[in-house]
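Review this:
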Amino acid sequence: MNTTPLPETTTVVIVGAGPAGLTAAITLADAGVDFLLLDRQAEGANTSRAAVVHARTLEVLEELGLAEDLIGRGIVVPTFRVYDGARTLAKIEFGGLPTEYPYTLMVPQDTTEEVLLDRLHKAGGQVHRPYQVTRVVDGKDSVTVEYTDAAGVAGSIRADYVIGTDGMHSVVRDQARIGFTGDSYPESFVLADVRMTWPIARSEVALHLSPEGVTVVAPLPDHDEPNRYRVVATLDQAPEHPTAEDIQAILDKRGPGGDVKVTEVLWSSRFRVHHRVADRYRSGRILLAGDAAHVHSPAGGQGMNTGIQDAAFLGPLVARVVKGEPAALLDTYETTRRPVALGVVAFTDRMTRMATLRPRPARLLRNTVMSLATRIPAVRTKLAFRIAELQTR
């Protein structure tokens, strides 16, 4: 925790030190721009949460010198397969994609943040914790950010620009009076990291469709915790902290059969899923990125990836404007990145609604169409390209 007094002025204030905020800070540090990165949490992520890093994000992280380190800490997964029970409905391979990273990388979010934070420190930056931003006032020539520190002492900073990467419940977005249009799914989601025996190869992510709901099982790096997997599942009413018995019951009903035995829950949670996009990405000197700008279904593991890519695009734009280019350059951020978020929300929404169909005739039709369509190589390639987010280049 860094509780040193904050200066009264800076060039850029970044609010929120998740993956998007850290990425934005790295790009500003590399460009020699003065900034402050504030976070309300006393420490960074210590749970895995988002665990998927796609090809396009690895390309972006390569430009920051981070891809190799992150790959070394993760597990390479080249296959995505959709099941109904033990039957394969679709198999998507990433190996043929036009990228240096033709796979999905499974790596816990706390590891991703650790790699980003280490890179920020090497660039001369730091995270100031815990500072709760309470008010953001956009003036003609500057933005004033008001905050309270760990002791409840109030203070303020004046900056040229503010970047809000402070999550779905963004104070920055609310203070800028930017709408967050969308809705919520009726189901609740279980999220758990477990140790278990699992009959499917650790080289694939498995999506299981069933009348009870959708379940995703993906391998996680297991250097210190053997047979570690991520389980995500929809339930009408999920328990607050799912137990090993809860996860075992889900997999017994929805999984592939065979030898499935959950031996330990390492971490678990429940959550509701929203699909929303900010009405604007910029309001004067205030800009949004990451979950402050868009949230959506975890289907396809797109969320953190889209946020990192937002920040990697935005940071250099802000640096160019700070160094004298026209402020109108910042408008290209919204025109470039907001359509990407709208596309991700639409894509993940279709995946989620398709996967959570309940009526038997609809499920049979879905399974038939999916099985037939994905026998066509061009369809499989298009799906792999989309999941890998390579269309955002």
Notes: The radius of gyration is 21 Å. The longest helix spans residues 331-355.
